[in-house]
Design brief:
Length: about 450
């Protein structure tokens, strides 16, 4: 990826235009160019290759409705012939075109060789090149982690990925593994993960100035979810490798934060488990005492993500962070509410929620606020414990899951909870089917504005 976008001032001319600009552009061209386009691409949309008098490629023209959209030009790198191209476009579109160029090149080729080679894009701006590379690399990290099959992305592999990230940015890494989770009081993480031969663990990364504002990220790291004893049907289990998508998101976001050296004190917590079936699996009807001290009656073992997140959120509060953010693939209900491509989030701070929504619109990474409707807490009542891990009705599932997590967050904490799909179910420009990052560029943009001004 690093070699596909360079800071240089030479190459075959590549002009990217909005549809509304095409006629004005054509009016400035030679009659040869006008006639060529009229014959080769009457609509003017998409890619046109324009030769010179010798029949050599002189100019590549790419016309889309809105080149300012971060993914509009995502297929351009896959359509151009080999060579180095010098980008010409309006300045306000350069960031989006370069990002789309890079994410459009993404391939998950760990298990299948891809012989495709790509053209190179040149732009005479070091800052735009650097920014596009950082965002695209973070996106690729999220995609790679989610796309990796569960046999190669168990808790120990997720740990290795986090350790690599820590080493890349001189961050501190630690983890609590297996039965040590019990001795150090992380009982729900242990309960969910104990049935697997891949030991559960709590992963912990710390980076930045200890005197800077504290921002803590928590990511759901269920590396595979069978549903436990409340076993999922085959169709529901097929893509449960993506159930560690929350962990992938916070690692991608952490990479963005550290690569850009944001002036914050960052902590990343990932409860990493496999929800497996064995003779020691936790059961429907069990009561678990959580790290916070709340007792939880297990109504359904397939509602395990909120269990492991509860212990991690409780631990996060030990530092009294200025901002606490979690990402998870928590509920199918959120997909019913908003579809697979619009991530929902919950917030205890309306101003932060509004600013985040604006940030998402600014960087074409839309997010949508959902309500923390407190009366639904009544749906978690248990006759023998403080609460159950599931509501008594199927409706409002995403809200109920968020309310469950809120029980482990201090009342005065500014908290954001993202419930994401983490998966593209259809191919879109620059977005292949498979693992995907939702909301991390929006959150990064919000943090960058908040802490860098």
């Amino acid at each position: 990826m690093n070699n596909l976008l360079i800071s240089a001032n030479q190459g075959i001319n590549l002009t990217v235009l909005a549809t509304a600009q095409l006629n004005d552009w054509l009016g400035e061209q030679t009659s040869f160019t006008q006639n060529w386009l009229k014959q080769s691409n009457p609509s003017g949309q998409g890619l046109s290759l324009i030769p010179n008098d010798n029949g050599e490629l002189d100019t590549a023209l790419y016309v889309v409705d809105e080149p300012s959209n971060m993914f509009s030009c995502g297929e351009l790198i896959n359509q151009l012939p080999q060579g180095q191209y010098l980008l010409h476009s309006d300045d306000e579109n350069l960031a989006s075109i370069t990002f789309a160029w890079l994410v459009g090149s993404y391939r998950f080729n760990r298990y299948k060789k891809d012989p495709q080679t790509f053209p190179v894009l040149a732009i005479n701006d070091d800052n735009i090149v650097s920014d596009a590379l950082k965002k695209a690399q973070a996106t690729a990290l999220v995609r790679d982690l989610i796309n990796t099959p569960p046999a190669d992305m168990m808790p120990e592999h997720l740990s290795a990925a986090m350790q690599t990230l820590a080493a890349d940015y001189q961050a501190d890494f630690s983890e609590i593994v297996g039965d040590d989770l019990l001795t150090q009081n992380y009982p729900t993480i242990h309960a969910v993960g104990r049935a697997s031969c891949h030991q559960p663990r709590l992963l912990d990364l710390r980076w930045g100035d200890k005197n800077a504002p504290k921002v803590t990220l928590v990511g759901k790291g269920v590396c595979f979810d069978s549903g436990g004893l409340d076993l999922k049907p085959a169709v529901g289990m097929r893509f449960m490798k993506k159930d560690m998508g929350g962990a992938a998101h916070v690692l991608g976001l952490a990479k963005l934060i550290m690569a850009n050296n944001l002036p914050i004190n960052l902590r990343v917590l990932i409860p990493a488990v496999e929800n497996a079936v064995s003779n020691n699996a936790f059961r429907p009807g069990d009561v678990i005492t959580t790290r916070k001290g709340l007792t939880v009656e297990i109504d359904n073992t397939d509602a395990e993500g909120r269990l492991v997140l509860g212990d991690a959120l409780c631990e996060a509060e030990n530092d009294s962070p200025e901002l606490l953010i979690d990402f998870s693939t928590l509920t199918g209900a959120m997909r019913i509410a908003l579809g697979t491509e619009l991530p929902g989030f919950f917030s205890t701070n309306t101003q932060i929620a509004n600013d985040l929504t604006v940030a998402g619109e600014r960087v074409d990474d839309p997010v949508w606020r959902m309500p923390l409707y407190q009366p639904y807490n009544d749906l978690f009542k248990s006759d023998i414990a403080d609460m159950t891990n599931c509501s008594t009705i199927p409706q409002g599932g995403a809200i109920c899951a968020a309310l469950y997590l809120q029980a482990f967050v201090n009342k005065d904490t500014d908290w954001l909870h993202f419930d994401v799909m983490a998966w593209n179910t259809r191919k879109l420009s620059g977005r292949p089917i498979g693992g995907e990052a939702f909301g991390i560029r929006a959150v990064f943009d919000y943090l960058n504005v908040r802490y860098n001004g």
